[in-house]
Amino acid sequence: MEFQDSQGSTPLQRWAAGASDTQFNALSGAVGGFTSGVVTCPLDVIKTKLQAQGGFLPVSKGRHVGHHKVYSGLIGTGGAIWRDEGIRGLYRGLGPIVLGYLPTWAVWFTVYNKSKTYLADHHVRNQFAINFWSSIIAGASSTIVTNPIWVIKTRLMSQSSSGYNREMSVFPRSGNTPTSRPTINSPWHYHSTLDAARKMYSSEGILSFYSGLTPALLGLTHVAVQFPAYEFLRKKFTGQGMGEMTESTQQSHWLGVLSASILSKIMASSATYPHEVIRTRLQTQRRPTPGVEYLQGLGISEPSGSQSQPTKRVQNNGPQPKYRGVVMTFRTILMEEGWRAFYAGMGVNMMRAVPAATVTMMTYEYVMKSLHHAQAEGRRKRAEGAENARTMMEP
Which parts form a coiled-coil structure per UniProt (predicted)? Predict the structure, then answer.
């Protein structure tokens, strides 16, 4: 129900009449990200499972002989999640997705458009350079602000209530108190977003929330490809820039926006996918419980003859995480699983990322169009009201 004032203005029109483009970009980005997150959450869960499962596989070939991968492909992974966890498993991590996408895209679109204005005002004339550097600045800002949320999201999505790593997991599961240290052979398990944040902070410290920040920042190459490409294609297809829509917008204009969204996302995802696998591995791992390296059969401490340099444990210094830094993580995955591991889940990622980007951009463009229309109507009615009041006051 819309409540109108004496001038016939709705609350949205009254707000939009005095709002700035910065507020429009923040709101449109938040709504676009939220909508995209809800629509594509199941595909995000499947992609995360495929990316992360290699990190849980045994390192030593002598352990768990015949062990097979539980997750394989879109249909197989979706079916495994459905059998083990039901519909809730497909929407695991939806909370941090909602909490994450709202500020991520709100910050991104706000900083992106502010950066474009700033660079143009400081004599940067090349439009591609403006879009490129604005994407980098906006991506870095949103990544740093929201990285803790995405770490929680990735952990929630990659865990299983029951699964192949239940007995072999080296990750402790927190008990009823924040500082409890449970048994070794149980998987780490988080019941909710807040529960995950509390347990991560109590057992791993504040730095755990910034796991994978370096590869996430390397992922700025993704937006550096996607959005300049989107701006270029949108201009070619529609003749207008991002967030620009006239009242005479036709169906062909929306088809141009749709095409630009799809093509730019495919280009960016194909070029930068391996960094997502590295980031996922860094985010989903945690330090084993002290003393775990002395347990036989779990493979934390490998025989001296079979240790390789990237994964070697220094027992005198206690247990070390398997993945440390981007370069070592890259070398470890390449040596243990081969180059194909860097493209694990890429097909699913395309099926998730392309619709996600399309929903985000289409929603952003639609909300921006609606807000600009509400702004124009609000200002028109405000001007009419002021004119009517002036006329009544005249003798």
Answer: none
